[in-house]
Design the sequence.
């Protein structure tokens, strides 16, 4: 079993958080997968962004605010 680092992006409303997680590679059919801790981390970030709590989400990674640049 090996692990590798991966950046996941969590988009909620006008915010996107860039969160680092560890993917676990193994020989079974569910590979690659996240650890339970990383899955909870992504859930915490998503909930914080949903509530507009940017500071709480920023504990786990970078947070970006999306802005429209053109309308069609």
Sequence:
């Amino acid at each position: 079993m090996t692990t590798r680092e991966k950046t996941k992006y969590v988009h909620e409303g006008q915010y996107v958080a860039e969160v680092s997680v560890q993917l676990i590679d193994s020989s079974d059919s569910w590979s690659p997968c996240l650890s339970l801790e990383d899955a909870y981390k992504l859930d915490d970030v998503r909930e914080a962004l949903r509530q507009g709590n940017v500071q709480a989400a920023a504990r786990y990674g970078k947070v970006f605010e999306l802005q429209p640049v053109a309308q069609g």
